[in-house]
Amino acid sequence: MEGLDIYRPWKVDEYIREIRELLEKEEYVTLSFFIESLPIPILHEVLVRLSNEERIKLFANVSLQPIAEILTKVSEDILYEIVTVKGIDEFSKAILKLPFNEIADIISKLPPRIKNRTIGLLPTDVRSEVLKLLKYPPESVGGVMTIQVPVFNCNIKVGDAISMYITKDKLGLYDRHHNIYVVDDEHKLIGCIEVRLFLTKPKDLLLKQIVRKPCAVIEVHKDREEAVKLAIDYDLIEVPVVDSEGRFLGIVALDDILDIMSSEFSEDLLKHGGIIETIKGSYIAVDPFKLALKRSPMIILLYIMNAITGSIVASFENLIARAAILAAFLPMLADNSGNIASQSSSLTLKSMILGEIRVSLSDFMKVLLKEMSVSTLMNIILAPFSFLISFIITMIAMGDINLAIRIAIVVLIALVISSYIADIVGSILPIILAKIKLDPAIVSSPLVTTIADIVTAFSYFSIALILLELY
Question: Residue 470: pLDDT above 50?
């Protein structure tokens, strides 16, 4: 166990082997020291990669107190394992040293019966603060808010505030923070000041004389993503949180902002890949049955939608029988329109997330006109390739120049029409969904690709039927 003073994520497998050896030899004292020495991110990775039996044996022989911080990181399944092995009493004691917002986060992951018993075992003062946080939805600002931050009345002198601040900070009553917050007699936020500046101000001044008005505040019931946007727009390390009347409640701290960004990015990425329900925890640790259940709904929907494409192709059976070469170009056209739809939906979603596109009629029209222009330019670029490729393939296969020209024209027109439709659908569908209060991220790449397939198949064979005059 020498040389573990520097930890590297790529050495996780070595740490796992070490833990397995200690478990096998039943050297639990050494195991406890080893576990305590691991940084929280590494310990989390190790726990995820251990088997259920190994984790249960580890939790049964290692105290929770030194590693309580890991409880905020683990999945619901692992948390349930810990509570089952250690018991609710020991579990409740282990989380007491954590900030109130982290205690609330941990308790919110527990099953209802265990959650209620855990809350009941907390000291009265802690329980009161935790219950205040648990009343907010997890996706709201209140659900990620930190309340253990320094707050002082505006009429207090700087010297007195510094004394109180130092005393409380030594007692560990504050969570990580960057600013001191100042409120009036009604607890409405007046302003804030960085801690380093606060400690150097003349001690005979009143706090209201040294604070600055915050650049931005956020209401406690807003979606937590809005707090991230404010932090990015105003370069904030922490975002003050107020109620509907402007009373100060807490902050969204930098570590929470980063966690939200990571969580929302993962969630949107999964949705854009066609997985509507969020997969919590590490992919390595997720049960295959749960994974299949979460992935199946979109797969079933897409399968049914693909049946529409199949029925469209089948309805043109006579046309395909007379000019079978038409079938050769359908995959190429369908893939092209699917790629265009995926690109346009990704660009629109990115712009909506960054606030570049608002859900308004003016922005809707701007997006529509821009994508029409883009489609026109792309079609000008693609058209010669489309005509030439389809002409050459038909000539090689059929040896009829007149037929090759007509097929090439059909493919070219179908390409243009399907490209326009796919681009427009992919770009405006996220805006429409946001307008009707649905998450625009559900416009997944597989979904828009399938829609594009349907449009392409119908337009392609309809154009062929008209231009080739084959009935």
Answer: no
